[in-house]
């Protein structure tokens, strides 16, 4: 049966995790597909050969020129709106969608609703927690989207779902104007990707798109103090009639909120008589790990699940069954009474602030590529918790200077090397500074690419160095 794409000339901007599925789906729907890509490396050539074998045209090394006859662009989420390709598209009146927008428009008439999550930090963990809760309720679900699993595959594949747990980045939301979720959450907001968005206001506005058209619940962070706050984004959203604002807090919850009371996660949002009643959902100890920011993630996941009608027992069982991905505040080992914790995923100051808040006495391993970040506020807030600091990476001087200004009494080891072997020396220096009862915490507050392929390799190097200590 012909589709709306049959015979349409569609340009897919970018290969990779999103571009290849988009090109395949569009080609299968009868579109004339041309893929343009900035890079021309071995991976790109392999993906190009796969697509060309299907009859897709691929242009490597030229992502800026608009192919003649293009009627629609479907872009990889990371491509900046300022690229010449999109400028040319605007001048020609060619619409630009992201792969999320394409997936949303391709949903069938009985498609599974989306429970969507965004935020500066914690998205992946929350989406995985939510999927675990939904599965505990007996629902057919999957964690998809920015988590690395194509939404296009989920909506066009043969597997039937009752509901999808969807992680969305600010990039994806920017290119998804018609997305309308069942319910959605913004976990937190802190300056990030400002080089892409142009300003904090534009970044927050793209995050806030996740609330547009929500049908049941807009879940927000009561404890957020930054402006705009997640609650501000809810107030600004145009939602369906009857959609509710549902807060989550690490404190005692008010009506229409979820929170924490005497070691319990409780719900005062999805109960009868919200002014008086509360429903116990789980114990704080059911959250793995029970660090403050991870408890907040669990409350957000619980809020979305409860909005979908999931029972309290399923929330508890799903949280108990959940195991976080590697390199997210993961306990590696105890050596001589000192805990060693890998939070290599803490690649910005907001994530690192949450990580540092989870422990009382810390030897902090930090540094890498700062991505334009400053560290004064982070260091000032954590100074009283720091036993010492070991600094690695290209931009470590920025952290060293912040420590000198705000924590001058904290001993600092500055490792003047950026090779991967520096991690072993960093762990050895941290062991020298630590005392029994302390935590040696890898929470770099920086990207990893100056020394490592990615944050996973950095965390693996830390864990290996800790194992050598134990040996």
Labels describing this entry:
single chain; 471 residues; alpha/beta; Rossmann fold; UDP-N-acetylmuramoyl-L-alanine:D-glutamate ligase; Protein-Tyrosine Phosphatase, Chain A; nine-stranded mixed β-sheet; six-stranded mixed β-sheet; 17 helices; globular
Give a structural overview.
The structure is a single chain. With 471 residues, the chain is of the alpha/beta class. It has 3 domains: 9-94, 3-Layer(aba) Sandwich (Rossmann fold), CATH 3.40.50.720; 103-321, Mur-like, catalytic domain (UDP-N-acetylmuramoyl-L-alanine:D-glutamate ligase); 330-470, Alpha-Beta Complex (Protein-Tyrosine Phosphatase, Chain A). The protein has helices at residues 16-28, 42-52, 84-92, 99-105, 123-136, 151-156, 170-174, 194-197, 200-208, 230-236, 292-307, 312-321, 349-356, 376-382, 396-406, 422-433, 455-470, and strands spanning 9-13, 32-37, 57-60, 72-75, 96-98, 114-118, 143-145, 164-167, 183-186, 217-221, 244-248, 257-261, 264-267, 279-283, 330-335, 338-342, 362-366, 386-391, 412-414, 439-442. The strands form 3 sheets. A 9-stranded mixed β-sheet has the order 7-8-6-9-10-11-12-13-14, with helices on both faces. The mean pLDDT is 94.
Brief overview, please?
The chain has 471 residues and is of the alpha/beta class. Helix content is 35%, strand content 19%.
